[in-house]
Each structure stands twice: as structure tokens, then as C-alpha cells.
Design a protein that fits this description.
SH3 type barrels, about 35% strand
Length: about 70
């Protein structure tokens, strides 16, 4: 399952993600536990929570991030 199509508010663990230096520098890596806080309208970014941080991720990138349910 990919992050873009996962349920809002439920925690998940990232199993595989594309090489992305920006996400990596923010601490988002394989094995990270995240949850979706909101989805923006018209195919906009997803806002995810990672620890105490909230980050916006482009939907096309989120579609390439493979996750598993916790």
C-alpha cells in the first residue's frame, strides 16, 4: 500500500521510499512511523506527522512511499 492512499489518522511504518534528499534530511526514512494528518484539495500535498513534526509531502511522492499498517 502507498502513503497517498492510506487512512487519515492511523499510524503506519514506511517500508520503502524513493531516494529523496529533502525527506531524508528531515528524518523521514524507511522504518519511520508516520500518520496522515490531512489531505489538501485538488490533488495537493498530504500533511503527515512524524514525531512532533508535521510536514507536507507532494502527492506524487507520497504515491511512491510504500507503507505497512501498525
Amino acid at each position: 500500500m502507498d502513503l497517498a492512499n492510506y487512512r487519515k489518522g492511523k499510524p503506519c511504518i514506511i517500508e520503502h521510499m524513493p531516494k529523496n534528499n529533502l525527506l531524508n534530511s528531515m528524518g523521514i526514512r524507511e522504518g519511520s512511523r508516520v500518520s496522515i494528518k490531512s489531505r489538501q484539495l485538488f490533488g495537493g500535498p498530504l500533511v503527515i506527522q512524524y514525531g512532533s513534526r508535521c510536514l507536507a509531502i507532494d502527492k506524487k511522492i507520497a504515491e511512491k512511499i510504500k507503507i505497512k499498517e501498525v
